[in-house]
Amino acid sequence: MLKANRPLPACFLPLCDKANFMTIQQIADKLVAYCRNSQWEQAQRELYADDVISIEPEASSVFEKETKGLPAIIEKGHKFDDLVETMHSIRVTDPIVADHTFACVLEMDATMKAHGRTAMKELCIYTVKDGKIVKEEFVM
């Protein structure tokens, strides 16, 4: 019988030492479930660190390239919601987990107030530290 002489990958380890810890896989699965139900703010309040950083593909007239801090990221979500006239569909793939990072693809079909109907597809990459998401990055 072979014995493992190396530690388990981080995705199999608890991310904090509390009795109700979540693994990175559980955090990833929970975030995806919230996103599939458009529960963005609930996901952020529960799963994000207070000093979380959000990185967009590029700066725009509406959003900065980088947003820092949970309150600012929640406000950014409200700003996005205000731009949407109708959300027709949201699709989020199952997460792929690697060490302290996970990723999923987010697809939205929405009618935007200023631009009409549009399809958006982006890769969402999340970094987890001490049981909380500390960075989200969106790549198109």
Automatic annotation (TrEMBL):
Residues 22-139 form the SnoaL-like domain. InterPro entries: NTF2-like_dom_sf (IPR032710), SnoaL_5 (IPR046860). Signal peptide: none annotated. It comes from the Bacteria. Pfam families: SnoaL_5 (PF20409). This is SnoaL-like domain-containing protein. It comes from Filimonas zeae.
